């Protein structure tokens, strides 16, 4: 008796719990295995203040959700289809208990507690006490819920008892955390992919100034957070970032719309559900703000709450992301067969019928509320009306997305149960590879089986719920159009988004199908600043986001060839930007060319110098036995003229496009040629100076007069320059160099390799020139017909003036003018030496042959000897006079030397008509043999 009494109490308690615990309104059907369901049959709950003066009553759900009811019907349809199947779960009947979440956490938790309570009662193992054949089995899995915030709360509770939960519409990325939500699974992609897709479409339309609005829950906040990160990576700015909720007060909604209306951003990205978005849209409609473009997340992209004709002035042209549609064979007919009288197990049908036909059924509790004045008057209906005669979102079966996810979720649970049913001992998933008993199966065993589920559904899609197993993110992009027939909202497919496609092929959009704001085909502008035209770049504005900028013209040498360029691209080294800075053109290449007038002029001057020098050499060769040529040391003159030809010729190497070989040749050629030239002048001048200033010719002087020693000195002086060039070319050889520093021109020049080496080369040349100048200046009073000392002095002065001026000119010029300056210096100094040293002699040879005689030379030499002797005698007499005065004090002077000119005439001398004057110098006598013509004798005496 005690055992029977206990069994009776337990059954009574269980029946009480099942019938009274949880929401009163439900859809319920018994079976061998029971599935739970959570669907938003209503959009929300009525808000009223609870003062707790009396026992609180259950919150009332308001605003019937036709789409939510269709989702519920998809679950019922799938279960009935499985029960009628002979291959899937044969001899096993699935039942269901489906509750309305009213799109709120509180209602969802109320329903979830009924699932948990039933499971706890079932775990009491009543078979030990009685034969409980009428007790309802535990809920082994739950399909739902819809909203991410609701699913998060439900998942926290179901995870405690390891009851598997498969959501069909909860896309929050937070729910992917398996450590926190151990029993949660879903048949919808995560919002992480959707946020990336939204950022991609904004980048596609080249917007950079947007407003972000998100629901204040676990769906909106994580989604918009991911969206912000994606926007930062793309350098797109969010002007406003706002949170909304369907429970916001009027003042909060108005303040939010104020900020949106005052914003210059025209694109509004809304990451929220339909109920949360509706208050915002209503206020926008009231203010008639129609110049905004809406980007809708999947949660409201096709919501019947927003897609109303009265809202189209505001939301027309909305770009929305919806899930890929699926196919449920026979579902359309099932939806049309619904009737309140026939479907008694589904209590939601009665309200659906009343909302669809705007009527009340007999015995409806809402009829009494209407009579009490709590609702508007509605007529009675029979329950047999034709459901196909009305327009309702419930029958919108053309694009089954969430309904298809529900269908897949139910079939996934059935497939897991089938795997348990067909499990072979020794190949199971449980301890010792055992199998679960489907008759005594518990929720955690179903969860284990679901985690290892891997099958292909009727759409050919693979379904699995392993670790980090999120559904493939494929979205259809829709555009809200206004129907031309009745003004209703038409969802036009305009593109697709495939997250796992290759880069560049993820987003596909047909721009021709998009109608912006319901009437325009032109893409709206939503940028903080106007696009910068080609040739400009975006410049930063202080205290403003990076998307707000001012257009700054590109600098010279930079360009931008597209609009809204962030930076200007630097032209290549061989190019320069045009006047508008929109493209680069090739720079003009310049060098001291043979074809340009300046190069032609310099080349003519150099060739003319070579010809003149060759002419002088020809004159000297032809008249090589004349006194003027002999007196000028003709051998050294030949070498000097040859070196001048080399000097003139070396200047030609500086003309033309510089090559490596020409760069390495031109400076050594110039330096060696000039040193050879100046060495010859130096040796000539020094030799004559030694001869004429020597009082007594000695053997040393005769050695200096030797031709071999003269050539040796010339060779030694030139060899030093040759060694400088060899060291230079070995350590730092010059090379051709393209100078890109000038804006629109590339100068091809020679990089000298070592400026110090060039300084040594020129410095050594100038040193020899300075020594030569010293000797020439010292010998300026020697017989002019013999050495042209004054002209050598002038030539050296010209040389110094030219090369002293060359140094600052060389370092202050650039490009081809560097070569031109050096050519001019070479030519000027070469012409100076040629003219000063040789033109006077050539003039005498060609035009004054009367002066090109031995007598003229001797006369000049004798005159110079007399002058030197007279100066020497006078100097010597002055010295003796001072000495005698200092010793004896006598005023008398005794000449110690005398100059006597004695003429010893004899027959031979008289016959020859010549005299041999003798010049006495104190202690010695130097005999100078001079010949004079008869006509000059009188004048000489």
TrEMBL record:
Signal peptide: 1-19
CDD domains (UniProt xref): PBP1_CaSR
Recorded topology in the membrane: Multi-pass membrane protein
Disulfide bond in keyword set: yes
Record localization: Cell membrane
Region described as Disordered: spans on this chain: 880-919
The G-protein coupled receptors family 3 profile domain, residue ranges: 598-861
Molecular function terms from GO: calcium ion binding; G protein-coupled receptor activity
Chief place of localization: membrane
Keyword Isomerase annotated: no
Tree of life domain: Eukaryota
InterPro entries, per database record: ANF_lig-bd_rcpt, GPCR_3, GPCR_3_9-Cys_dom, GPCR_3_9-Cys_sf, GPCR_3_C, GPCR_3_Ca_sens_rcpt-rel, GPCR_3_CS, Peripla_BP_I
Record key words, sorted: Calcium, Cell membrane, Disulfide bond, G-protein coupled receptor, Glycoprotein, Membrane, Metal-binding, Phosphoprotein, Receptor, Signal, Transducer, Transmembrane, Transmembrane helix, Ubl conjugation
Residue ranges the record marks as coiled coil: none
Listed Low complexity bias regions: 886-900
Record field: transmembrane: 598-624, 636-656, 668-690, 711-730, 755-777, 789-811, 817-839
Compositionally skewed regions (Polar residues) per UniProt: 901-913
Complex formation: Homodimer; disulfide-linked. Interacts with VCP. Interacts with ARRB1.
PANTHER family, A to Z: CALCIUM-SENSING RECEPTOR-RELATED, EXTRACELLULAR CALCIUM-SENSING RECEPTOR
Similarity-based family: Belongs to the G-protein coupled receptor 3 family.
The protein's name: Extracellular calcium-sensing receptor
Origin species: Tetraodon nigroviridis (Spotted green pufferfish)
């Amino acid at each position: 008796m005690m055992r029977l009494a206990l069994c009776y109490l337990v059954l009574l308690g269980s029946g009480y719990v099942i019938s009274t615990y949880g929401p009163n309104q439900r859809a319920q059907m018994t079976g061998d295995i029971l599935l739970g369901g959570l669907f938003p049959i209503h959009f929300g709950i009525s808000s009223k203040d609870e003062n707790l003066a009396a026992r609180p009553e259950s919150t009332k759900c308001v605003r019937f959700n036709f789409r939510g009811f269709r989702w519920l019907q998809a679950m019922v349809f799938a279960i009935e289809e499985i029960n009628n199947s002979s291959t899937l779960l044969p001899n096993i009947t699935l039942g269901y208990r489906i509750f309305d979440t009213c799109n709120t956490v509180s209602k969802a938790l109320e329903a979830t507690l009924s699932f948990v309570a039933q499971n706890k009662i079932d775990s009491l193992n009543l078979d030990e006490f009685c034969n409980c054949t009428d007790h309802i089995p535990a809920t082994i899995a739950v399909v739902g819920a819809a909203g991410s915030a609701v699913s998060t709360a439900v998942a926290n509770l179901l995870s405690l008892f390891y009851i598997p939960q498969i959501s069909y519409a909860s896309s929050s990325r937070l729910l992917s955390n398996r450590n926190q939500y151990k029993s949660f699974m879903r048949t919808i992609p995560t919002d992480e992919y959707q946020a990336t897709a939204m950022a991609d479409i904004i980048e596609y339309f080249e917007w950079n100034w947007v407003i972000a609005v998100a629901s204040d829950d676990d769906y909106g906040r994580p989604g918009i957070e991911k969206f912000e990160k994606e926007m930062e990576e793309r350098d797109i700015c969010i002007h406003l970032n706002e949170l909304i909720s369907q429970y916001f007060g009027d003042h909060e909604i108005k303040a939010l719309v104020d900020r949106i209306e005052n914003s210059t951003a025209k694109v509004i990205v809304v990451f929220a559900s339909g109920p949360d978005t509706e208050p915002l849209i209503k206020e926008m409609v009231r203010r008639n703000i129609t110049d905004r473009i809406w980007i809708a997340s999947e949660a409201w992209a096709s919501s019947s709450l927003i897609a109303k004709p009265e809202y189209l002035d505001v939301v027309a042209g909305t770009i929305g992301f919806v899930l890929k549609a699926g196919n449920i064979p026979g579902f359309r007919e099932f939806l049309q067969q619904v009737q309140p009288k026939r479907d008694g197990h589904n209590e939601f049908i009665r309200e659906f019928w009343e909302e669809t036909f705007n009527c009340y059924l007999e015995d409806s509790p809402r009829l009494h509320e209407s009579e009490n004045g709590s609702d508007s008057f509605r007529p009675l209906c029979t329950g047999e009306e034709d459901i196909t005669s009305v327009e309702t979102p419930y029958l919108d079966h053309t694009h089954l997305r969430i309904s298809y996810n529900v269908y897949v979720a139910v079939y996934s649970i059935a497939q897991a149960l089938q795997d348990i049913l067909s499990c072979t001992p020794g190949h199971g998933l449980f301890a010792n590879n055992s199998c679960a008993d489907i008759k005594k199966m518990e929720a955690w065993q179903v969860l284990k089986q679901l985690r290892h589920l891997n099958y292909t559904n009727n759409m050919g899609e693979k379904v699995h719920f392993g670790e980090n197993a999120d559904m493939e993110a494929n979205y259809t992009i829709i555009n809200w159009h206004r129907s031309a027939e009745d003004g209703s909202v038409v969802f036009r497919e305009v593109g697709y988004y495939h997250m796992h496609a290759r880069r560049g092929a993820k987003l596909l959009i047909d721009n021709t199908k998009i109608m912006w704001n319901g009437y325009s085909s032109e893409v709206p502008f939503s940028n903080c600043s106007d696009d910068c035209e080609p040739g400009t770049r975006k410049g930063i504005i202080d205290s403003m986001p990076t998307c707000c900028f001012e257009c700054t013209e590109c600098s010279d040498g930079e360009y931008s060839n597209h609009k809204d360029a962030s930076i200007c691209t630097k032209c290549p080294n061989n190019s320069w930007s045009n006047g508008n800075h929109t493209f680069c053109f090739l720079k003009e290449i310049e060098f001291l060319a043979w074809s340009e007038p300046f190069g032609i002029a310099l080349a003519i001057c150099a060739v003319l110098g070579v010809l003149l020098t060759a002419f002088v050499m020809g004159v000297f060769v032809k008249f090589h036995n004349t006194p003027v040529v002999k007196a000028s040391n003709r051998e050294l003159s030949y070498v000097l003229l040859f070196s001048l030809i080399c000097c003139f010729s070396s200047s030609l190497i500086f003309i033309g496009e510089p090559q490596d070989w020409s760069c390495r040749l031109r400076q050594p050629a110039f330096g060696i040629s000039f040193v050879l030239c100046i060495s010859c002048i130096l040796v000539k001048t020094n030799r004559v100076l030694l001869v004429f200033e020597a009082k007594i010719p000695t053997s040393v002087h005769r050695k200096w007069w030797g031709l071999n020693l003269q050539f040796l000195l010339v060779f030694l002086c030139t060899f030093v320059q040759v060694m400088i060039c060899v060291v230079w070319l070995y350590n730092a050889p010059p090379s051709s160099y393209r100078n890109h520093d000038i804006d629109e021109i590339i100068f091809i020049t020679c990089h000298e390799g070592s400026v110090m080496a060039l300084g040594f080369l020129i410095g050594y040349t100038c040193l020899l020139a300075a020594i030569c100048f010293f000797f020439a200046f010292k010998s300026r009073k020697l017989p002019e017909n013999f050495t042209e000392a004054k002209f050598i002095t002038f030539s050296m002065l010209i040389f110094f003036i030219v090369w002293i001026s060359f140094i600052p000119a060389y370092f202050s010029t650039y490009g081809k003018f560097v070569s031109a300056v050096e050519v001019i210096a070479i030519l000027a100094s070469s012409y100076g030496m040629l003219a000063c040293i040789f033109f006077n002699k050539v003039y005498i040879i060609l035009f004054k042959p009367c002066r090109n005689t031995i007598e003229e030379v001797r006369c000049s030499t004798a005159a110079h000897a007399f002058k030197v002797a007279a100066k020497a005698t006078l100097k010597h007499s002055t010295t003796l006079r001072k000495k005698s005065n200092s010793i004896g004090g006598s005023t008398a002077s005794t000449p110690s030397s005398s100059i006597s000119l004695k003429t010893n005439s004899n027959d031979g001398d008289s016959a020859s008509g010549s005299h041999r004057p003798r010049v006495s110098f104190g202690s010695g006598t130097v005999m100078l043999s001079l010949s004079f013509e008869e006509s000059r004798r009188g004048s000489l005496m």
